[in-house]
Amino acid sequence: MKKTPASAVHLALTLALGLAAATGAHAQDFPAGKPITIVVPFAAGGPTDRVARDLAEAMRKPLDGTSIVIDNAAGAGSTIGNAKVARARPDGYTLLLTHVGMATTPVLYRKLPYDYETDFEYLGMINDVPMTVIGKPQLEAGNFKELREWIAKNPGKTNLGNAGIGSASHLCGLLLQSELKAEMTTVPYKGTAPAIADLLGGQIDLLCDQTTNTTSQIEARKVKAYGVTTLKRLGTPALKDLPTLDESGLKNFQVTIWHGLYAPKGTPAPVLRKLNDALKVALKDPDFIRKEEGLGAVVVADRRVEPAEHRKFVQQEVARFGPVIKAAGVYAD
Fold it and tell me: Record keywords: Ligase included (predicted)?
């Protein structure tokens, strides 16, 4: 067996130590006045985009005033933006902010250009956005119990709208049908706006969507509101009297559309710590909390702000949504 010369081994070790030292020095200097980009895998103006822009503003101060810009890389149910960050240089200057899709795309898509478990560093969870079950104004059912009875008497005739395959409303609708053991006709739309428009017009019967999209309609009494998908009632003025589905008989029914922050795999540990520390500061910022409450969102204040706990939570969500999506036979190419 041919031996490697001692000089070559010494050179290799020197280069490795030099590279490690350079990486460590770079990490200590982070963010070094260079702009940070948060990739949002959805179009500008939507709920996730608004969360990202509010968070960017709140994280600037704990990151020494560093400029944080938003890059909307929309398309293919968030997978384009997710893949963009998975392939980005792991230096902390390119981050991903996305929602529950991090846990549902691995089931919805037969093939992905990234692995949600191995291609990202988890930085922490940001918020929970509750969902509401709303109905067209003409529905006779006055509460969730009556709605449940009405659905049972009309198997297959209830039209349940959603904002498209893989959307928050689609996932909520799948869980609702699964828990009710009810047969409904699913009506997908290209976005929430047309779905709500048809609900108001009576073309569909029901919709389960985020409070960010439904609160104004509920407050104006333009729709029938049947329940909120949290285990506790919400404290917002417009929704504080709306019962939870749990208290209305659908025990332990809980679904929220959460958002999390991620970095490419291999980002140096000191950089990850700085980013996580900045995230924690941002989540306690009164102005950020006020803006999130205005969207109907609840800022996370539990262990899920820790990278390991957020990773564990996402794995639990994959296990939770997976069987429901597979049972429905819904897949995106």
Answer: no
- Single-letter code of the amino acid located at 322: G
DSSP-assigned beta bridge partners for residue 95: 38
pLDDT(20) > 60: no
The tokens 């922490």 sit on which residue? 124
Compute the Cα dihedral for 303, 309, 312, 317 and give only its sign.
Answer: positive
What CA–CA distances, in Å, run from 291 to 45, 294, 297, 305? 15, 5, 9, 19
Q: Tell me the average pLDDT across 115-130.
A: 96
Instruction: Catalogue all structural domains in the chain, each as residue range(s) with its CATH number.
Output: 33-128+257-328 (3.40.190.150), 130-228 (3.40.190.10)
Q: What is the SS3 assignment for 260?
A: strand
Distance (Å, whole) CA 9 – CA 5: 7
The string of pLDDT tens digits covering residues 174-221 is 999 999 998 899 999 988 889 999 999 999 999 999 998 898 899 999
Nearest partner of 312 among 168, 172, 124, judged by Cα: 124
pLDDT of res. 10:
58
pLDDT at residue number 31: 93
Residue 123 corresponds to which tokens in the numbers above? Answer: 């930085």
Treating both helix axes as pointing N-terminal to C-terminal, what angle do 47-60 and 286-294 enclose, rounded to 10 degrees? 170
**Mean of the per-residue pLDDT values of the chain:** 90
pLDDT at 325: 85
Report the C-alpha gap between 319 and 303 in whole angstroms: 20
The pLDDT, as a whole number, for residue 333 is 61
Q: Which residues pair with 208 in a beta bridge?
A: 133
Contact 144, 250 (CB under 8 A): yes
